[in-house]
Amino acid sequence: MAEEQLLKRITANPDIFSGKPIVRGMRISVEMVLSLFAQGAPVEELLDDFPGLEADDVKACLAYARAVIAHDSLDSLGVGSH
Questions:
Q1: Domain 3-77: CATH architecture, name and number where available
Q2: Is 12 helix (H, G, I), strand (E, B) or coil?
Q3: Among 16, 22, 35, 36, which is disulfide-ready with 41 (CB 3.0 to 4.6 Å)?
Q4: Could you give the CA distance from residue 23 to residue 21 in angstroms, rounded to a whole number?
Protein backbone atom coordinates (compact mmCIF):
# COMPACT_ATOMS: atom_id res chain seq x y z
CA MET A 1 0.00 0.00 0.00
CA ALA A 2 1.38 3.41 -0.97
CA GLU A 3 2.29 5.87 1.78
CA GLU A 4 -0.42 8.28 0.65
CA GLN A 5 -3.06 5.55 1.11
CA LEU A 6 -1.62 4.56 4.48
CA LEU A 7 -1.73 8.14 5.73
CA LYS A 8 -5.47 8.29 5.00
CA ARG A 9 -5.85 5.84 7.91
CA ILE A 10 -4.58 8.49 10.33
CA THR A 11 -7.21 10.96 11.47
CA ALA A 12 -7.75 13.50 14.22
CA ASN A 13 -10.89 14.25 16.15
CA PRO A 14 -10.95 17.00 18.79
CA ASP A 15 -13.29 14.82 20.88
CA ILE A 16 -10.81 11.92 21.01
CA PHE A 17 -7.52 12.40 22.88
CA SER A 18 -7.77 16.18 22.41
CA GLY A 19 -7.23 15.91 18.68
CA LYS A 20 -4.06 13.80 18.74
CA PRO A 21 -3.54 11.64 15.64
CA ILE A 22 -5.52 8.42 15.88
CA VAL A 23 -6.02 5.32 13.76
CA ARG A 24 -9.16 5.38 11.57
CA GLY A 25 -11.23 7.32 14.08
CA MET A 26 -10.78 4.65 16.76
CA ARG A 27 -9.61 5.36 20.29
CA ILE A 28 -6.15 4.09 19.37
CA SER A 29 -3.54 6.84 19.19
CA VAL A 30 -0.62 6.84 16.80
CA GLU A 31 1.56 7.72 19.77
CA MET A 32 0.53 4.59 21.68
CA VAL A 33 1.08 2.28 18.71
CA LEU A 34 4.53 3.76 18.09
CA SER A 35 5.42 3.57 21.78
CA LEU A 36 4.49 -0.10 22.05
CA PHE A 37 6.26 -0.90 18.80
CA ALA A 38 9.38 0.96 19.98
CA GLN A 39 9.30 -1.07 23.22
CA GLY A 40 9.58 -4.22 21.16
CA ALA A 41 5.97 -5.34 20.87
CA PRO A 42 5.64 -7.37 17.68
CA VAL A 43 2.96 -6.34 15.19
CA GLU A 44 1.08 -9.57 15.91
CA GLU A 45 0.84 -8.65 19.60
CA LEU A 46 -0.52 -5.21 18.76
CA LEU A 47 -3.13 -6.76 16.51
CA ASP A 48 -4.12 -9.24 19.23
CA ASP A 49 -4.30 -6.56 21.93
CA PHE A 50 -6.34 -4.07 19.91
CA PRO A 51 -9.33 -5.60 18.12
CA GLY A 52 -10.05 -3.73 14.94
CA LEU A 53 -6.42 -2.73 14.43
CA GLU A 54 -5.00 -3.97 11.13
CA ALA A 55 -1.42 -4.51 9.97
CA ASP A 56 -1.81 -1.58 7.57
CA ASP A 57 -2.76 0.61 10.54
CA VAL A 58 0.63 -0.10 12.14
CA LYS A 59 2.29 0.71 8.81
CA ALA A 60 0.24 3.91 8.70
CA CYS A 61 1.56 4.92 12.13
CA LEU A 62 5.11 4.38 10.91
CA ALA A 63 4.39 6.34 7.72
CA TYR A 64 2.95 9.16 9.82
CA ALA A 65 6.05 9.23 12.03
CA ARG A 66 8.28 9.32 8.95
CA ALA A 67 6.26 12.17 7.47
CA VAL A 68 6.51 14.17 10.69
CA ILE A 69 10.25 13.73 11.12
CA ALA A 70 10.89 14.42 7.45
CA HIS A 71 10.15 18.03 8.36
CA ASP A 72 12.22 18.04 11.53
CA SER A 73 15.83 17.62 12.58
CA LEU A 74 17.64 15.92 15.45
CA ASP A 75 18.86 19.31 16.65
CA SER A 76 15.34 20.60 17.21
CA LEU A 77 14.50 17.49 19.23
CA GLY A 78 17.60 17.73 21.38
CA VAL A 79 18.86 14.25 20.48
CA GLY A 80 21.88 12.99 18.62
CA SER A 81 25.58 12.89 19.33
CA HIS A 82 26.97 15.45 21.77
A1: Orthogonal Bundle (1.10)
A2: strand
A3: 36
A4: 7
